[in-house]
Amino acid sequence: MSGRLENKVAIVTGAGGGIGGAIARSYAAEGAAVVLVDLNEAATREVKNAILEAGGGAAALIGDVSLEETAVRAVEMACREFGGLTTVVASAIYDAPYQPAPELPVGEWKKSIDVNQTGPFLLVKHAVPVLAAGAGDRGGGSIILVASQLAFAPKPGRTWYASQKGAMVSLAKALAVDHAKDGIRANALSPGPTADERFFSQWPSEEEAQANANTLMGRLGEPEEIAAGAVFLASDEASFVTGIELLVDGGYTAV
């Protein structure tokens, strides 16, 4: 790797998942120190250990992103362990059942809102003051909200998912408008169908999952390919990029 994120300090939520874990590992490989946040302790420890074994810097926080205390603790950990904060990536997801709105239990809707919308809000609420304070020292702050191509090309039964991922795109734009003056960039990253356990769990086999990629490339994306977009958005190469949605979807939305 080329050290594109040297001197950066990032918080990555959902770091125990396929995409979140790939982002965390790619950030560390490019020189960033990373605070890993997830409820899945075993998966998060595995990502942390992989980073440490490769010579990178990582700390783990096992917590529920829908709780404000988790956001507070994550920001405090970044400052305590690594001396500041430059980057936040909101990748955590709660998967409600794939059902049409009349069939979706209200409790599932509310839980998905808590994690998928309120969680990113809480993270940026507590991260922005620290990002702004250090913007001049480390090349500016970067907020990356993981959205989805399904925000604009929904599949059946994804009422909660499409609406909440669309909210991430809008939130990124609103944050970009509010905080450009603070030296902070905010963008949405929209992965297409990705070869990870979350996607594979929707199909009887990995072969059938690949066959249902529905991308121009004729395959699923790899988590590392999604992570490459997150590396770009966090890097100084994206210093003039804010308020956008970066689609990394293999042409899914072009079909």
Shape assignment: globular
Residue stretches low in confidence (pLDDT < 50, at least 5 long) are none
> Widest sheet: strand order?
3-2-1-4-5-6-7
> What count of structural domains?
1
Q: Rg from C-alpha positions?
A: 17 Å
Count of DSSP E strands? 7
Measure the end-to-end span.
33 Å
**Hey, roughly how much beta strand do the residues contain?**
15-25%
Per CATH, the architecture is: 3-Layer(aba) Sandwich
Return the CATH class. Alpha Beta
> For the residues shown, what is the average pLDDT?
93
Secondary structure blueprint with pairings:
Blueprint: E1 9-13, H1 18-29, E2 33-38, H2 41-53, E3 57-62, H3 68-82, E4 87-90, H4 106-134, E5 141-146, H5 159-179, E6 184-191, H6 197-200, H7 206-211, H8 223-234, E7 245-248
Parallel strand pairs: 1-2, 1-4, 2-3, 4-5, 5-6, 6-7
Helix pairs in contact: 1-2, 1-8, 3-4, 4-5
Word description of this protein:
This protein is of the alpha/beta class and 255 residues long. The protein has a single domain, classed as 3-Layer(aba) Sandwich (Rossmann fold), CATH 3.40.50.720. Helices cover 44% and strands 15% of the residues. It contains eight helices and seven strands; from the N terminus they run E-H-E-H-E-H-E-H-E-H-E-H-H-H-E. A seven-stranded parallel β-sheet has the order 3-2-1-4-5-6-7, sandwiched between helices. Strand 4, helix 4 and strand 5 (141-146) form a beta-alpha-beta unit. Helix 1 (18-29) packs across helix 8. The protein is globular and about 45 Å long. The mean pLDDT is 93.
Q: Can you tag this structure with a few keywords?
A:
single chain; alpha/beta; Rossmann fold; seven-stranded parallel β-sheet; 8 helices; 44% helix; globular
